[in-house]
Design goal:
By secondary structure, this protein is mainly β. It has one domain. It contains no helices and 10 strands. It has a 4-stranded antiparallel sheet with strand order 2-1-4-6, with no helix packed on it. A two-stranded parallel ribbon has the order 3-10. A hairpin with a 2-residue loop joins strand 1 and strand 2. The chain is elongated, with a radius of gyration of 14 Å. The protein starts with a strand and ends with a strand.
Length: 89
């Protein structure tokens, strides 16, 4: 997981086995959260997150392009491989 502020990488973290991650001690601001996982693509990354004093959840949807035909309109065919990734501020 990558956390970006004003175009600069400011933090990285790794998900736990359940796909959860956490960035703590963030200042109020506008961030981008990006994700990567070998062999997978993410249809909705990076995502923007606004931190304003409360926890924020940012989730991503992964797919394996080797085994799935992905349609950005929201449908897929083949055998989709879902990898949960979510987080809190």
């Amino acid at each position: 997981m990558l956390l970006i502020l004003n175009g600069q990488l400011i933090a990285t973290t790794t998900t736990d086995p359940g796909g959860n991650y956490n960035f703590s001690g963030l200042m109020i601001g506008f961030y981008s959260v990006d994700v990567s996982l070998g062999g997978y693509k993410f249809k909705d990354a990076p995502k923007k997150a606004t931190i304003s004093g409360a926890d924020v959840t940012v989730d991503f949807t992964a797919y394996n392009p080797a085994s799935t035909s992905f349609n950005p309109g929201g449908t897929s065919s083949g055998a989709p491989h879902s990898v949960p990734a979510g987080g809190t501020q």
